[in-house]
Amino acid sequence: MDKPAGIGRRHALSLCAGAAAFMASPAAARVVFRESRRLTFHHLHTGEKLSRVYWAKGNYLDDALEEISWLCRDFRTGDSRTIDLETLDIVYRVRQVLETNKPVEIISAYRSPKTNAALAARSPGVAKRSFHLQGRAIDIRIPGISSHTVSRAAASLQSGGVGLYSRSDFVHLDNGPWRRWGS
Length: 183
Hints:
Structural class: alpha+beta
Number of strands: 8
Largest sheet: 8 strands, mixed
Mean pLDDT: 87
Radius of gyration: 15 Å
Helix content: 25-40%
Distance between the termini: 36 Å
Strand content: 15-25%
Shape: globular
Low-confidence stretches: 1-17
Number of helices: 5
């Protein structure tokens, strides 16, 4: 598995710009930043569960990021890639807006090129250059909270892409440009 890389200047500037946009949003008033950030996951395809503090006292924790990236691997091929820090922060903030500690159920996170190509061949809704290929997207649901509610919470952050797939009952989150789709 790739070791999480340090944050470069461009990524740091991107995070600052995202933070500034977020702080100006209505959802910012509901998010409480703590000394640490914990994410709790349940991968629906592998059955694996993980609850880890991934950020503490101003630093991302390499060991936790490696475990999260492994959990978020392509379950079809076993290939793994470092999951993007901003994507994890979006998931964290969505849970904060929803005021829940329930586990985030993972439908899909990192996808290998082989898996993405196979999915794109079967469904026109799968992007050939998906953010999943870069470890910058995750498809989730949160037990007991409707996908519509999760989607609205994510959209209130105005960070990255938010796709609602109500028929399949999941929400796509990524750290690309702000956009929203689905019903």
